[in-house]
Amino acid sequence: MTVYSIAYKNLLRKKTRTALTAGGIMLSAWVLATLLGFNRGYQQGLNRDIDNMGFQVLLTAKGCPYEAATLMLKGGTGLRYMDESIVKDVFKHPEVEKVTPMLMHGVFDPDKGENGAIAAYLGVDPATFPSMKPYLEFKQGGWFTDDKAYEAVLGYEAAELETREAGDLMLVVGVEKPVKVVGVLKRSGTQDDGTIFMPLGAVRGMFDRKGKLTGLGIKVKKEADIPAFENKLYDLPDVQVVSMAQVKSTIMNLVNSARVIAMGIAGIALIIAMAGVINTVLMSVMERYAEIGIIKSMGAMPFDVFRLIWTETAILCGLGGAAGIGLAFVTAGLSEAAVRYFLPYAPNGALIALDPAITGFAFVLITAGGLLSGLYPAWRAARVRPLEAIRIEGEQ
Amino acid sequence: MKKVFLSLFFSAWAAPAFAAVGCDLNDPDRDVERLFPSSTGYKVRYLTVKAAGGEALLARIEKRLGDRFKGLYETIDVPYTVYDIYRGTEPLGHIHGVNQKGQFGGIQVFLALDKSGTIRSFYIQKLTSRAAKDLRSKEFGAQFEGLALPDFSGYDPVRASAKPGTPAASLKAPERAAADFPNVMRAVKKNLILMDELVFTEKKK
């Protein structure tokens, strides 16, 4: 008969208490695994949202309007240009993850309204712009086929106003060759809805702006200090920095707050589990005081008794921990629904991201915590003096 | 404050309920005075086929037009802007515009109608076409003055042809506007039918 089977049989002697203790450990493991999964899922979701924001910093020439509405307010004038070489200068900064060059152009269209109006076009780089605006989805068609193609992608409202659909042709004022509409975007609720996008190379060719940019969208690395980076950009000559970073900072604060809260609750769950284990195993040792004394009087060494009690704890924690991990998997959907119900904002995607690494870590942590808690009761059991234990039992 | 900011920010990500795009005068004060020189004021109403009669009304309008409504700009929930024109308290007529798909871009065709639905003025507010100058000319617009919905009943927008002998058949297309003239004709007929269904028929009721 091995020490494991003896430990197992000892646990079965008080089935209800064993079940309740294992249940407590199971609940702690469930809370721990779910919280760790939530921490991972929430961070992943918020990081996805940050990625979806596209660029966080926009660099323009000093005084240049940086979106179509301002350009129109200025009557289509006031565009200032940066040289293309600025892309290399910006990339020298280690904070930069990606950049996307843009060229805005406004043309007076005499056939808009009674006295004419400005039509604005935004030249974007087909290689970098789509990945910087991953939240833009297409209602029809897709992005340009080539940087110099006479093609356009229309924001939803621009498409409605111009009554264009994918495959239609449109005229650009002052340009003889028609432009083919290759895509219509879904509504995004941003200024992109009213924008006419064309390939950067084509816009440069149409309006003779070779090597010029009106804007450079910059996506910074997640860990970057954006305000410090923006200050560094001001060292570049004749540029202005338009910051869109406040939202990112707020989201990162949310991530950090969520991490602290989740870890705090997980810690409490672990402490509760440990307290339960100490209580149960110590009670079990006290109840078997005389029995342990008899075992020792029959020749068992203190280490044998210690090992027996510690093995009981290990079995209790192992079974409870495994059941808790299983419960976390089973109830992940329910937990996610509850979190979404109670949180004012929850990002898209899986909120409870359980994987082998997280569940393995939770299992090891719970088991290790349990074993640590079992040290004291096992030590007390190992120190039982046989004669004293038998005498006390006899007095009772 | 943080909560308000976050709600505002993230609401931009949510899918909002947008209506389809309408057709409004760019500068109503100036345009109303130009199209109805004797007017002293106007009121604006927003009408939709969806609210006025739904699918059944849409089907009737399409039947009268002789063509289906299509595309992003011709949905059942397009808000049609009707300007009711007044001299003092006396109603003078209405101004109403519609969006129409043209060869190279959107066409916005406005009609100024008197109380009986007869065209007083014709105005293309926006047009992307190589023949834009000709289609927006006074001479071209003047052809429509005095016409009403019955004059366009024989016009087939799918075939882009009018019954010989009808007033619509006598309208002349500018030389270079062969592609966009049928689009303008469809817009005028649609405009008149919408006004008849949404304003004049409602008034009779």
Task: Sum up the structure in keywords.
heterodimer, A: 396 residues, alpha+beta, 2 domains, ten-stranded mixed beta sheet, two-stranded antiparallel sheet, 12 strands, 54% helix, B: 205 residues, 33% helix, disordered N terminus
Contiguous helical run count of chain A:
14
Oligomer: heterodimer
Q: Whole-number radius of gyration of chain A?
A: 34 Å
Count of the domains of chain B? 1
> What is the ordering of alpha helices and beta strands of chain A?
HHEHEHEEHEEHEEEHEEHEHHHHHH
Helical coverage of chain B, percent range: 25-40%
- How many runs of DSSP E, i.e. beta strands of chain A? 12
Largest sheet of chain B: 5 strands, antiparallel
Strand content of chain B: 15-25%
Assign the structural class of chain B, choosing from mainly alpha, mainly beta, alpha/beta, alpha+beta, or little secondary structure.
Answer: alpha+beta
Mean pLDDT of chain B: 87
Q: Greatest chain-chain interface? A: A-B, 31 and 41 residues
How is the largest sheet of chain B built, in terms of strand order?
A: 1-2-3-4-5
Count helical runs of chain B. Answer: 7
Q: What average pLDDT do the residues of chain A reach? A: 84
Structural class of chain A: alpha+beta
What's the helical proportion of residues of chain A?
40-55%
Q: Show unreliable segments of chain B.
A: 1-17
Question: What is the topology?
Answer:
The complex is a heterodimer of chains A (396) and B (205).
Chain A: H1 3-13, H2 15-52, E1 57-61, H3 68-73, E2 82-83, H4 86-91, E3 96-109, E4 117-124, H5 129-132, E5 138-141, E6 151-154, H6 156-162, E7 169-170, E8 179-185, E9 196-199, H7 200-206, E10 212-213, E11 215-220, H8 226-233, E12 239-243, H9 246-287, H10 289-297, H11 302-330, H12 332-342, H13 356-382, H14 386-395
Parallel strand pairs in A: 4-9, 6-8
Antiparallel strand pairs in A: 1-11, 1-12, 2-10, 3-4, 3-11, 5-8, 6-9, 7-8
Chain B: H1 2-11, H2 28-35, E1 41-47, H3 49-52, H4 54-65, E2 80-87, E3 90-101, E4 106-114, E5 119-127, H5 132-135, H6 138-142, E6 155-156, E7 161-162, H7 181-204
Antiparallel strand pairs in B: 1-2, 2-3, 3-4, 4-5, 6-7
Helix pairs in contact in B: 4-7
